[in-house]
Write a structure and sequence with these properties.
The complex is a heterodimer of chains A (114) and B (116). Chain A is mainly β and 114 residues long. Chain A contains no helices and eleven strands. Classes of the chains: A mainly beta (114), B mainly beta (116).
Chain lengths: 114, 116
């Protein structure tokens, strides 16, 4: 069984479009995250949710809006896509809320904005 | 401010050699956590180890070992008798769960290539 899953795996779209990436975890964890990994492999946290509540919101453009319908799901919606949004986006989950625990990562979604 | 430095961008060794990946961190917090994650060519990130700031004991897990030294703010990772399957990008990370601006910082990663 996949622990943390993301869809789609690849996403190619035009500048200005709106797109969503879905994430689901079946580990029973309370906390979920979104990370962005750029072309140089730099990995940066974007958001963290605990039991559907936003905990961490890094300096991310407000075109990015996470939504957590329940604690097993954390989706990422991106409006008005820009070239600089091209990256691999990783979803992750952990049992603890305070970033003290190991995180389980999804397989990543490679977003290419043309 | 927190910072994680992995000065070695790329390392290439021949199989069966030992290799050490360096990680130096900066933080003003007294309570923090350090992690290592592995990202193989397939792309997923895999947790390897977690250490809290009060536990300086070195850890060994099979061919992997970690050396945590608060005096030098380092958390180095050694692979003994490396294998081709160890080829990956390795990330060191620092989290400060109890600060007012709780976050996790990843280093820039070290790309390790093991040649047969």
């Amino acid at each position: 069984d996949t622990a943390v899953s993301q869809t789609p795996k690849y996403l190619v779209t035009q500048m200005g479009n709106d797109k969503s990436i879905k994430c689901e975890q079946n580990l029973g964890h309370d906390t979920m995250y979104w990370y962005k990994q750029d072309s140089k492999k730099f990995l940066k946290i974007m958001f963290s949710y605990n039991n559907k509540e936003l905990i961490i919101n890094e300096t991310v453009p407000n075109r990015f809006s996470p939504k957590s319908p329940d604690k097993a799901h954390l989706n990422l919606h991106i409006n008005s896509l820009e070239l600089g949004d091209s990256a691999v986006y990783f979803c992750a989950s952990s049992q603890e809320v305070l970033l003290a625990d190991e995180q389980f990562f999804g397989p990543g979604t490679r977003l290419t904005v043309l | 401010a927190q910072k994680v430095t992995q000065a070695q961008t790329e390392i290439s060794v021949v199989e069966k050699e030992d290799v050490t990946l360096d990680c130096v961190y900066e933080t003003r917090d007294t309570t923090y956590y350090l992690f290592w994650y592995k990202q193989p060519p397939s792309g997923e990130l895999v947790f390897l180890i977690r250490r809290n700031s009060f536990d300086e004991q070195n850890e060994i897990s099979g061919r992997y070992s970690w050396n945590f030294q608060k005096s030098t703010s380092s958390f180095n990772f050694t692979i003994t008798a490396s294998q081709v399957v160890d080829s990956a990008v390795y990330f060191c990370a620092l989290s400060d769960p109890y600060s007012s601006a709780s976050k996790i910082i990843f280093g820039s990663g070290t790309r390790l290539s093991i040649r047969p």
